[in-house]
Amino acid sequence: MESKSVAILKQYWGYDTFRPLQREIIESILQGRDTLALLPTGGGKSVCFQVPAMQLAGICIVVSPLIALMKDQVQNLRKKGIDAVAIFSGMSHREVDIALDNCVYGRIKFLYLAPERLYSDLVRERIRYMKVSLFAIDEAHCISQWGYDFRPPYLQLSSLRTLHPDVPFLALTATATPAVVEDIQEKLEFVGRQVFQMSFRRANLGYMALAEDDKMGRMLRMINKLGGSGVVYVRNRRETQEVAQYLVNHGVSADFYHAGLEASMRSAKQDSWMDNKVRVIVATNAFGMGIDKPDVRFVLHLDIPDSLEAYYQEAGRAGRDGKKAFPVLMYQQVDRDKLWENFEASYPSVKFIQHVYHHLGNYFQIAYGAGKGSFFDFDIVDFCKRYQIEILPTMSALKFLEKDGWISVSEAVFIPSRFKFEVEYQELYKFQVQSAKYDPLIKLILRTYGGVFEFYVPLNEYDFAKKLKTSYSNIVDMLNSLQKLQLASYLPKTDAPQLEFLQARVDYKNLFIDAAFIQERKTIKETQLKAIYAYLDDTACRSKALQRYFGEQDETFCEVCDLCLMRAHRSGIENKLREEIKNLLLVNQRSIKQLVDDLTIGNDEIRVRVIRELLDEEQLTLEDGVYRWNTGF
């Protein structure tokens, strides 16, 4: 089995050997065992299910909440000649139907699913008829209410067991506390324990947490000193632009990135940074997932992340080449206070949640008793402005409505325009002859895409307009006309989160909200926040603090974090100070004032402390207010 796995790794991925634990995880899957893999960011999680799936007969179903990452992996698999499809929110019923048919009857090897798709009876029923070899659950911590990023749709995953009881599960995550590790296995109904976990220590990373009044100045000095490329994380979109402009004004090649940008612009900015055309990317936490850039020398946080799990993942994007790198978190007291305020705002009252639901029904003009299964592009900023409600509690209300099965909300992701002919070729040709206006466009579509009669194909209206020397709006009008004539299906592009009503609309006064669950989540989140504060206030070692939080006991100091460096520096000063005290007192006895004044190393505080330590160690003697060196030592 192992030699076959290595051959597949070499054939499709071009590597001769596996990374640590990949081989063991793959062997566990091939033996049909439920497996939980905890691998650090950049540890090669996808290979752990892609390689065994290529050896097993049937289709591998991959569940992931990260639509952009799913699309990238599908594209990469197709480039390798491996058939793969993805199903996520925003796709039409017809698109989903065709994709599922190909999984049942075609040669598809990988089906990527957004977790909310499991709410659909259609999807679950089609999975029943697929020959499934493996269920791979990415970001598996999302299933745990003890995790930092609980996603209600993940609770649907247990239904996969009833469809294919004998198919093994592979759960993957980069960060999980012991409670989350147990919860993942319980929620996924693991048969036996098979957990593979790498150490959470990254020996090449020098973690730092600095209380800093002048964050911008300190950031600039660190970037200039450290060299190489890096990421600066900030809390909101406005700050991405302000900080990037500050760096550019001070001679640093920088750009900004956030989820509100057009997909093409986000892609261009990311590519420029990946290709080292831009040295520093200033971003919200929307940036970085799935990116494996090896030469990142620093990851700077100008705001405190919401959890240590989130911080560990984001900081872990530094130093993937194994060379020295620095994740640095800078904060002020106001940041600590703001984090707590956001926490309080994130757990709204049941009454507020009910009113958000009521506003949603009105916003999308859904009648009572209607709306089940309806999808909509959702602009939360516009929604909150219209009803004059705060964004943060509204976002939390949506998550609690999702947990209780009323709605489903997907992440914002760019979905290109899609097109499919709905008539036979002969009928289409007859239309071309009769309608000269449409003939050039139809010919271009047929020349550009194969399978456009069987599948939806992505198309670029701007590219068509350029080739046909006409306007973008004219192309769109013709595509819409083809749809109205029932000759084709045309689905325009979107770049917005998708909201689905899972149940018919009810009167908000009759809306059930699980208040006990909300209180439980609030208690869990409070524990996570206190863990962040404890990390900031730690005095021993940053790496040890992170490992301790994730349940890993390691008594050794990392020797590269800010606390270890300060301790080493302090130890060096103290040793030199001890030697100077000895030399001074061997020449002449002194009072405490004379001794402190005559010393040249350290400040008064450290001088007095070392004198007291030497006195406790009996290396000094004190008689009548005069200090002498004990020559017996």
From TrEMBL:
Keyword terms, alphabetized? ATP-binding, DNA-binding, Helicase, Hydrolase, Isomerase, Metal-binding, Nucleotide-binding
Q: Name one GO biological process term.
A: DNA recombination
Catalytic activity annotation: Couples ATP hydrolysis with the unwinding of duplex DNA by translocating in the 3'-5' direction
InterPro entries in the record? DEAD/DEAH_box_helicase_dom (IPR011545), DNA_helicase_ATP-dep_RecQ (IPR004589), Helicase_ATP-bd (IPR014001), Helicase_C-like (IPR001650), P-loop_NTPase (IPR027417), RecQ_Zn-bd (IPR032284), WH-like_DNA-bd_sf (IPR036388)
| MF GO annotations | 3'-5' DNA helicase activity; ATP binding; DNA binding; four-way junction helicase activity; hydrolase activity; metal ion binding
| Ranges for domain Helicase C-terminal | 218-364
Record carries keyword DNA-binding: yes
State whether keyword DNA-binding applies. Answer: yes
Q: Quick one: a GO cellular component term?
A: cytoplasm
Ranges for the Helicase ATP-binding domain?
26-194
Classify the source by domain of life: Bacteria
Q: What is its EC number?
A: 5.6.2.4
Question: Which SMART domains does the UniProt record give?
Answer: DEXDc, HELICc
UniProt similarity note: Belongs to the helicase family. RecQ subfamily.
List the protein's name. Answer: ATP-dependent DNA helicase RecQ
Species in which this protein is naturally found: Sphingobacterium deserti
